[in-house]
Amino acid sequence: MAKKKEITVEEKLRALFDLQIIDSRIDEIRNVRGELPLEVEDLENEISGMNVKMEKLNSDLAEFDLSVKEHKNTIEHAKELITKYADKLNNVRNNREYNSIVKEEEYQKLEIELAEKKIKELKAKTELKKETIAALSDQMSDKQKHLDAKKSELDEIMQETEKEEQLLIEQSEKFEGKIEDRLIKAYKRIRGNVKNGLAVVAVERGASGGSFFTIPPQVQMEIASRQKIITDEYSGRILVDAQLAEEEKEKINKMIDAL
Predict the structure, then answer these.
(1) What whole-number distance in Å separates Cα of residue 221 and Cα of residue 241?
(2) Of 58, 132, 214, 240, which residue is 20 to 30 A from 15 by alpha carbon distance?
(3) pLDDT tens, position by position, 194-244
(4) Among 197, 210, 199, 209, which residue's Cα sits nearest to residue 241?
(5) How many domains is the chain built from?
(6) Please, what is the Cα angle at 106 between 100 and 107, to 5 degrees?
(7) Do 105 and 89 belong to one domain?
(8) Domain-located, residue 174
């Protein structure tokens, strides 16, 4: 890994502020998207779960249909046996044989009754499943329309901002490469600890950007001298003087406009 070139404190401050401007612009782009990517992902997961449920319901329907067919086959088979038993009764030789055939005939009639009862139950279950499927299908249709609208909205924003974001990310990485690792870690840590992501701010009207606490004149002079990196004792943010900030804003904004 190539060693980073040693630069002056002022160059470090400029590079840090430049990085802040770029990262803030990336934040703005991502804020425009807001919760849309998460909403799209949630809807996709929800629809995926519904699809799994729909597959299970259709699988249940197929099983019901198969069971109905099996019970119908049982009925047909039982009827065939009853017909055979009727023929046999005409040729019985003794009471024992007669009783045996009658019992078999009664058993097959019971089999028919049971199968018909099962078919009736399965048909009732099938109707309920179909109602559930219809309701779920409507829900899925509504969710899909909602998802399509959200994706369309997100795609439109992505088309407008994706290229700029990618170019800005590349520039962010480029500026990071100019700054020593220790400072980059501190910068990222501060960014993660503050709501607006501002880790490097200019001194404005005697106070650090976004703060109501006044910075003593002596400290303001030290900041303006650009001889060392100074942080705000209240927020921990890295401080730069207003002139440096204006110069870097103009420079970086021109660079961003040219992207």
Answers:
(1) 9
(2) 214
(3) 888 999 999 988 888 767 788 999 999 999 999 999 998 888 899 999 999
(4) 209
(5) 2
(6) 90
(7) yes
(8) no
